[in-house]
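Marked as duplicate of an earlier ticket. Keeping the data here for the record.
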Amino acid sequence: MSSKIKVFITGATGYIGASVLERLQNHPDAKNFEITALIRSQQKAEGFKKFGINAVVGSFNDAKLLEDLTADADIVFDTVDADALEAARIMLRGFKRKFEATGKAPIFIHTSGTGVLTDDAAGLRATEVVWDDANPDQIEQLPPTAPHRDVDLEIIEADRQGYVRAYLITPATIYGLASGKFVDAGLSNKHSIQVPALITASLERGQAGMVGKGVNIWPNVHIDDVADLYIDVYNAIKANPEGTGHGREGFYFGLNGEHTLLEVSEELGRVLVALGKSSSPEPTTFTKEEIDKYFNGSNYLGSNSRGLANRSKAIGWKPKKTTKRLFG
């Protein structure tokens, strides 16, 4: 029987996933890992194989493959899509198979997001509500309609039933360029989503934009710090499996600072002027037509999302980069 720890990772070509995979291959336990990655592109799969990864071609649409890969794993790092409910259900079926075959609950390190904490401020107000990842009673007050919450609740229920140990990494606005061998090889994405979306819209309209007045507050975290959090959770599970919170007590917020949308838009306005892309550094409010065009009609960027990473820091996570780094 193999003594290897079977690790399955989704999203290895992505911003977060590649950063986590890099750290897994650099981990002191790396020699004991047998890492499998689900890769959509045959060409990229061949690239990952050159780095010693068992790259399997497929996607979340391949239900049997996804279930089988999950059922074969001891640990799953899921970094793809916090809203992929059907994929989560498929993986949970795989975990149940694993548990029924072995009697041991496998480990599921899933990516949620602080979007679950958002409100409908539309950039018009800040909030005093701050959510604490070490306070499960407070987190249970989140409505089931909150972003990502339907997936989170399915996973938490599976943990309650005992056939999986679930840990929910919950990143804030992630910034910074991902780096490492997978990025250098052109196999993975080095860019985040939220701030680049704001940049794209502002460039096209010729002036920095914001939702409402931009006074809403969001937390932030650097890609290197949040990727470290996944590994710190793994390390905590290995060192103290019974003492490391999971399920309803398994939220690990990835955040290390706060910003308002206005602050980001003002900085973007200054950069656009410096680059000759705008005549004014002052951000203006996106019109409804622009919200529809650039953000699919959503005021999400104008929401509040505030949190405390007390549980994450209690297991030894030490983020190094603060909001100052976000602005340069």
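See parent ticket for discussion. The longest helix spans residues 85-102.
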